[in-house]
Amino acid sequence: MPAFALTIFAGAFLLFQVQPLIGKYILPWFGGGPGVWTTCMLFFQVLLLGGYAYAHAITRRLQPRTQAILHLSLLAAALATLPITPSDAWKPHPSGDPTWHILTLLMVSLGLPYLVLAATGPLMQEWFRRTTPGASPYRLYALSNVGSLLALVSYPFYFETHFTRQAQAQFWSWGLAFFAFCCGFCAWRVWQQPAPDAVQEKAADAEAARPTRFQWVLWLCLPACASILLLAVTNKMCQDVAVIPFLWVLPLALYLLSFIVCFDSPRWYSRFYYTLALAGALIAVCQALFEGVDMPIVRQVVIFCVTMFVGCMICHGELCQLKPHPKHLTSFYLMIAAGGAVGGLFVALVAPYIFNNYYELHLSLGLTVLLLLVISFTGKAALSPLRWRILFTLLALAATYGADKGTAAAVAWLRQRDTMSMIPRLQNWNWTQVDDLHWLVWVVAGLLVPGGIYLRRRRERPFNWHLMTCSLLLAGLGALATALGLQIRDSRQGSVASARNFYGVLSVFEYMKESPDSHHYLLQHGRITHGLQFASAERARMITSYFGSSSGLGIALREFPRQQNQRIGLLGLGVGTVAAYGKPGDYIRIYEINPQVTQIAEKPFTYVARTQAKVDIVMGDGRLSMESEPPQNFDFLIMDAFSSDAVPVHLLTREAFEIYQRHLKPDGAILVNISNRYLDLRPVVENAARVFDFQAHNINSEDGGANDNDDGGGWWLYSSSWMILSRNKEFMNRDAVRHAASPPSANRGNIPLWTDDYTSMFRILQ
Questions:
Q1: Correct CATH for 545-710+719-743 of 1.10.1270.20, 3.40.50.880, 1.10.10.10, 3.40.50.150
Q2: What Rg, from alpha-carbon coordinates, does the chain have?
Q3: DSSP per residue over 712-734, as a string?
Q4: Quick one: pLDDT band at residue 283, thresholds 50, 70, 90?
Q5: Residue 685: which pLDDT band, with cuts at 50, 70 and 90?
Q6: What is the C-alpha to C-alpha distance for residues 762 and 765, in angstroms, rounded to an integer?
Q7: pTM
Q8: What is the biggest distance separating any 2 CA atoms in the chain, rounded to whole angstroms?
Q9: Which CATH superfamily does the domain covering 2-382 fall into?
Q10: Using an 8 Å Cβ cutoff, are 231 and 344 in contact?
Q11: What pLDDT does 423 receive?
Q12: How far apart are CA 648 and CA 654, in angstroms?
């Protein structure tokens, strides 16, 4: 067993170590958005399915010795494809949705090694079953997940922070060579085994019970639900913080942990306890969705991760209860992989076309409850009568609590819309007192249950605790659907347009239509405002949000010595607010990767249309576009290419600043918007400034533009933090610039210079 255990562990470690590594390579090429990781996950899940299908096919069709020869041949071919680092020839050109480009790139660079590694788990377990009769191979599945988990946890905490990408790729290649040696030893063990007796095999097969159709359906649906839940939570966190390995790894590690716990031993999963845990988690996640930005991000991350873990424990725990005789082991794993691939296909390819927002999180929560309901209804024997009674009682209390809160919310909604005045009998009702009648809901609930039990006994029929518990689960599913529907409705209040594509979700809101002076449009990416514009023609050119005259951007543009015929480069269009600074004779070149942003900046926003400067919009990733262009001789290069609250890390590396420097006039300035609630980007930019001999100032402004003179200040001006980098001493030493600059930051020598080969978010968390 040690040889098989080591091989399975090493294969699983390499399988999951390569995921964040290859993602780190290609993220800079495709805009650094969450869609890149979702597409990578789709590739990994589909190739995992391919590996499991290959293992299933050869164990069913070929003799063990032939299996060994074929697998070692494929492994040798995989070694010949090393290294796995993608060539620069795969860098994209502006062509819309890059999903298929990413999938093709991954297939060419990583396809065969990943396929062989993916087949390791089920194939080695089958070989172990043949060489060690009577031993259960399912513990090896838990061991493979331990290897996967260790790979994921070690990457952001150790490998990413201590080694460059190139070194990581080299270590991975050596690891694959070691894995090939281990596989060769296991193949030798299989070769030493005598050919199996056909009569004995047929007798053993006859003893193995065939899985039912219902089991096959659950083998597919349970892992599909867990996969959707995993990707939905990952999307939710990445769009609000940053697309970095740690935020891919955390949900994926919890997902794997649920596999490890469930398949190690049946005693770790109890439907009774996890049903209660799910009820509590769903209440918390609904609260988090309703509160949105008002809830601290750390609390949100905890709530979403705990909910995902509980949901995955239910899916994988029930899956483990359904595992078949070892004879059907590869079929079982094949269906698990198929379910994961179905979930990945749905989130990566289907959801962006049928949803205009990230609704797969809502869907996966409802699907988890639905599957639990189906399994509970068909699995009465899983719990003792006493536990069904206790579960019913606790769920009834939770349902009453939900009814209490729901009644209060319904009354508040009716009062807000003055619905009561439309019903004559309710016009004189003192609805203020209804808010204090929480006890009424509890009294009604307290009478319903004993009343039901009494009626059943009068009819001489025992109270069916199992059926009533399932009824409560059904009611809970309805309540969850209602709550999530209300949350979606609330989140869309004021929305006039919403669009979703590979790069995320853009929503346009219209507010204060009744007030001509305050009527405005607002753009959100994820949950972060990316600009607003007043609707009236008189105020449409007014500068708003993060770009007011007291912001670092406003001060730099106002104080720059050369005020005529400026050439301005802008990474990230947003709503086009920067274009409002344009004067006759100026030229503004805007780099934008998301075609939907360009459409929105044309309508309903009009900053670009109204500017007095000449404007060109270049579609594609700003860094890649500038890399292929001749020097543009910009007076200003403005970086505002952040999506939601996430940071495209590849725009802040040494190699990126080399490109910026090539496009900048000798006395020009680079302006970087480093506004972020979770990451302190100032030392990162200051490191780059030192390397390229730029003088650097950090200028912060407050909400409302308290120091504004030109635009007078107001609610339409947001707090911001800008870095100004320039070698122009006359400009950088002007009184207005120096007085607005923040004091020098404390020496943070523990933060190395970011490069394409090395970045680490942990050291800049704030």
A1: 3.40.50.150
A2: 30
A3: ---TTB--EEEEEEES-HHHHTS
A4: confident
A5: very high
A6: 6
A7: 0.79
A8: 96
A9: MFS general substrate transporter like domains (1.20.1250.20)
A10: yes
A11: 54
A12: 14
